[in-house]
Write a structure and sequence with these properties.
Elements lengths: L5 H9 L17 H10 L3 H23 L2 E3 L6 H14 L5 E5 L8 E5 L2 E7 H6 L2 H16 L3 H12 L6 H30 L2 H13 L2 H4 L4 H13 L14 H12 L2 H6 L8 H12 L3
Parallel strand pairs: 2-4
Antiparallel strand pairs: 1-2, 3-4
Helix pairs in contact: 2-8, 3-7, 3-8, 4-6, 4-8, 6-8, 6-9, 7-8, 8-12, 9-12, 11-12, 12-14
């Protein structure tokens, strides 16, 4: 197991010219707010202290526990899934990530853990069973997006802090988790874009996000997308919108609308060989309004 050099990680994050580092850096499609907040995290002392301690603790013992309950994806084990992972890695120009399937039929999900230089993807069995290959490309592409965009270290720190806060003093945990959750909500927008880039089909991406919301194809088929997006206004009007401040992911209707906007960008239009599209900088400003919490 390689030693995690947190100071080197911080130095890279502080460098304003590091849009592309030796391991990919950031995708050109990345959400501007994600990049902006990610770089500010390195200057927040509670975040740095908590992230350094939690990632090292994760590598020391939590990683072994996770991997001990999972099965590695290889060309011989889960070849269908391995092909999807490999295709997403090629699309985003990252090394094929080590991937594991874990027994969990409760929900469709996935996660990426470790550090930016030593990461792995965990996929619950429900995700593999309930999604088509194209839908899996959206989910796996999303996770590869975390790898390409240097999210893994802080994402792992947030996961560890959320579940293992008892091992840290409160003055570190509270400001660190608030800051990391605020960043994570922006990072999810970036990675939904990576998922769309991998599946190259907005309809597939929409179906996948809807499945994340309801869990099954049968229920997903009964959802009216326009009505679902209309829930964004209801979210903003209710006092319950404050609860999103404590979430690591934007609410799914917001994520879907943000992705629809990205699909209108000149960047994505050019990628799929269609003319036109709006500048990505313009799209990002509109997306910021969509995903804002308060």
């Amino acid at each position: 197991m390689s030693r995690f050099d947190f100071q080197r990680y911080v130095d890279v994050r502080k460098n304003p010219n590091s849009r592309r580092t030796e391991r990919g850096g950031f995708g050109e499609y990345a959400f501007a707010a994600d990049l902006r907040v990610l770089r500010t995290l390195t200057f927040a002392k509670p975040v740095r202290l908590a992230a350094e301690a939690s990632v090292r603790a994760f590598k020391a013992w939590a990683r072994s526990d996770i991997l001990g309950r999972s099965v590695r994806v290889t060309p011989r084990q889960f070849p269908r899934l391995h092909d999807v992972v490999a295709s997403c890695a090629r699309e985003l120009h990252v090394p094929v990530p080590t991937t594991y399937v874990t027994q969990d039929f409760s929900r469709i999900n996935a996660g990426t853990y470790g550090t930016d230089n030593d990461s792995f993807i965990m996929i619950p069995s429900a995700t593999v069973e309930r999604l088509t290959d194209d839908e899996l490309r959206f989910v796996i592409g999303h996770e590869c997006g975390h790898i390409q965009n240097s999210h893994v270290t802080y994402g792992t720190a947030l996961n560890f802090l959320t579940n293992m806060t008892g091992v840290f003093v409160r003055w570190i945990v509270t400001p660190a988790t608030i800051a990391l959750r605020a960043w994570s909500r922006q990072a999810e927008i970036t990675c939904d874009r990576a998922g769309l880039i991998c599946c190259r089909d907005m309809e597939v991406a929409t179906k996948t996000i809807v499945k994340l919301a309801v869990g099954t194809q049968n229920l997903a088929d009964q959802i009216d997308i326009e009505a679902y997006l209309g829930q964004i206004d209801d979210i903003r009007q209710g006092f319950g919108r404050v609860s999103e401040f404590f979430e690591s992911h934007p609410y799914l209707p917001k994520r879907l609308r943000a992705l629809q906007l990205f699909a209108e960008s000149d960047y994505y239009k050019n990628l799929i060989g269609e003319p036109g599209g709006r500048p990505l900088t313009e799209i990002d400003k509109e997306v910021e309004q969509v995903v804002r919490v308060l």
